[in-house]
Amino acid sequence: ADEILKVRDLKTRFFTEEGQVNAVEGVSFDVRDGEVYGIVGESGSGKSVTALSLIDLIESPGRVTGGEVWYRNAELADEFREKIPEGVDGDFVDIRRLPKGVRRSLRGPSFSMIFQDPMSSFNPSLTVGEQIAEAVEVQRRARANPRRTRSRTQGYGLGSLIVDSLLPSRDYVNDESMDRAVELLEQVGIPDPAERADEYPHQFSGGMLQRAMIAQALAGEPDVLVADEPTTALDVTIQAQILNLLRDLQDQEGMTVVMITHDLGVIARMCDRVGVMYAGEVVERGTLEDVFENPVHPYTQGLLGSIPDLVDPAPRLQPIEGNVPSLIDSEMDDRCYFADRCPKAMEDCLTRIPEMDTDGTEHRVRCVLANQEYDESQALENGHFTAEE
Ligand code: SF4
Ligand code: MG
């Protein structure tokens, strides 16, 4: 399949009192039409920030400061080919170069996002049906009158990614949008959807609310659904059901999914290709088989521990001793960010940041060992854990 997203050297900074935090430090990857692309890493690795950066949801004091997010959309490419020539390449537009209003209008019909905590995606004082109906109606009006339509779901309706609350009433909810909301609830496997639509978020179980959030995210018929730890808060049985639902939606609707998770089991079960993040960088990426069965980066090897086995029902991240390095700019050296924890660290690793090796295949690794054999005699004494414990 063709690429739908091409992320190049994405950089996101947070400007805090302690200093500039380089949360995303030059991330590149491609997502293909109709695939499930996984981004995996420990907490603090920059995976959620990467997801938010993709769809322009970084808030102050954070800012995307560099890189490109190429999105395939022939209509937009035609619209901006002359106005912003450097932001158009064939059928692709660089989202970062589009005017703010246009970027915003992509939320819903182009990109939608679901989160770990569905409660925070819903307004507790409106029924679930009303909120999904509103998302449907906002999207319909946005199509009719792009870049004008506002929703009042700000702060709640992140599932539909529509912001700027202006309308005070239930104006957006009509019979047609409510019918569609019920359809969506049915599509995500909610029994008695017409009755459930009239209930409030607190009347839903966690799993049901997660389904409702997915329904809300589907209201705009997005090209790409970004799912950030969508099942982390759920118990195992419900997790499996939600993952199956996402997989079915991807199969049946041809939706592209970017799955952000710390859970290797989720990656193994869902994803076609995967990028492993560490300290704001993608350190290894490739097909599921490349990364799980033939991991090259010592960090990936460490994560997979003794169970790089795709049939293992629930491989989990293995704890790796040591801490994720500080991402404060002034404290980041020109060396492999994993060196303090790496059992294979050599002199070479302490003097430069390894490039993402491009060996002509899809399997890419940001490590000096990508193109040289590991030689134990080169390893630093106490190569890992040089940091004070
Ligand atoms: Fe380990 Fe060196 Fe590779 Fe970094 S570059 S992961 S320190 S071997
Ligand atoms: Mg996160």
What secondary-structure arrangement, pairings included, does this model have?
Blueprint: E1 3-16, E2 19-32, E3 36-40, H1 47-54, E4 62-72, H2 74-80, E5 88-89, E6 92-94, H3 100-105, E7 111-114, H4 128-144, H5 175-187, H6 193-196, H7 206-218, E8 224-228, H8 236-253, E9 256-261, H9 264-270, E10 273-278, E11 281-287, H10 288-293, H11 298-304, E12 364-365
Parallel strand pairs: 3-9, 3-10, 7-8, 8-9
Antiparallel strand pairs: 1-2, 1-4, 4-6, 5-6, 10-11, 11-12
Helix pairs in contact: 4-5, 4-7, 5-7
The structure holds iron/sulfur cluster and magnesium ion.
Iron/sulfur cluster binds at residues 297-298, 336, 338-339, 342, 344-346, 349, 354, 367-369.
Enzyme class: translocase
Pfam families: ABC_tran (PF00005), oligo_HPY (PF08352)
Main location: membrane
